[in-house]
Design goal:
By secondary structure, the chain is α/β, with parallel strands linked by helices. It has 12 helices and 10 strands. α7 packs parallel to α11. The longest helix has 16 residues.
């Protein structure tokens, strides 16, 4: 069973992990119940999200209530450290995450809870990802349409990142825009952000033809994601949302910049971006 949680970018990586396991011959279920739990808890350290696309778009199946209950019971017993006393030494169940996935053998029942954010995962699943996303008509149109030449998408994520001190400084965008102007013929910049007031107060961003924002509803998320795909060049944030749009929307003629380090304080996969993208150091 693969846990699906977080924003749309996280959801995509987790769905790709589920597909990878399915291709290895495992019977795979996904669990999307965490969205309701986070919304109900409404904790300061958690950001409530919603499932953006139905899992059947990805040819995957939601775990049933009975199977999920069995997992919950086994997980509770495991956490209480009494599992080995009443089962066969936990021979049939393992819990895997980003830290222990390497070198951990799979058992009869495996529970995957993690982000699985590696650029190789995207590259290896390009056809599957494109086909799955194309089950939504708006995404299908954006994925198949011609990209706007000489256009650059700029993604500015602040919002919940302000709580974790992971928002990017304006310096990152200054260096990225400078590089874009030097190496491309960009004449059009479009900014996508969750903090439109901050962006409008930045002198640097007066170059933008538009500064767009939206809610985190599934419909708005799809509209924003689709629009972001329609550009030639990409200045991404430290967000898998814009990373994946750059992966899907860019071509050999594109220039993509990304922030380094990806995060200042939080852990992340060092292989999260394409080696062909331009690294912009900001600290």
């Amino acid at each position: 069973m693969v846990e699906i949680y977080g924003g749309f970018g996280n959801q995509i990586y987790q769905l790709l992990k589920a597909n990878e396991l399915s291709n290895l011959g495992f019977k795979v279920y996904v669990n999307t119940r965490d969205f309701k739990r986070v919304a109900k808890e409404n904790a300061d350290h958690l950001t409530a999200r919603k499932l953006v696309l139905p899992v059947n778009f990805f040819n995957l199946e939601e775990v049933g209530s009975q199977k999920f209950l069995k997992y919950r019971i086994r997980r509770i017993l495991r956490d209480l450290k009494i599992l080995n006393k009443i089962t066969l030494n936990d021979k049939f169940f393992t819990l895997l995450n980003d830290k222990n996935i390497e070198g951990t053998g799979l058992k009869k029942n495996n529970y995957f809870i993690g982000h699985w954010q590696s650029f190789n995962n995207l590259e290896n699943c390009y056809e599957y990802l494109s086909k799955s996303l194309s089950n939504h008509p708006l995404l299908k149109n954006s994925l198949s349409s011609h990209k706007k030449s000489n256009s650059t998408m700029i993604h500015v994520r602040r919002g919940d990142y302000l709580k974790f001190n992971e928002e990017l400084p304006i310096f990152y965008y200054e260096k990225s825009i400078e590089l874009i102007k030097t190496k491309t013929k960009t004449t059009n910049f479009k900014i996508y952000t969750d903090d439109i007031n901050w962006c409008k107060n930045q002198k640097l961003f007066t170059i933008a033809d538009e500064i767009l924002t939206s809610s985190d509803s599934p419909d708005d998320t799809i509209k924003t994601f689709s629009s972001m795909l329609n550009h030639q060049n990409y200045i991404i944030a430290n967000s898998t949302f814009s990373l994946i749009t750059a992966f899907l929307g860019s071509s050999e003629d594109s220039l993509v910049t990304y922030p380094h380090p990806w995060f200042k304080e939080r852990n992340y996969n060092k292989n999260i971006v394409s080696p062909n993208w331009e690294k912009i150091k900001y600290i």
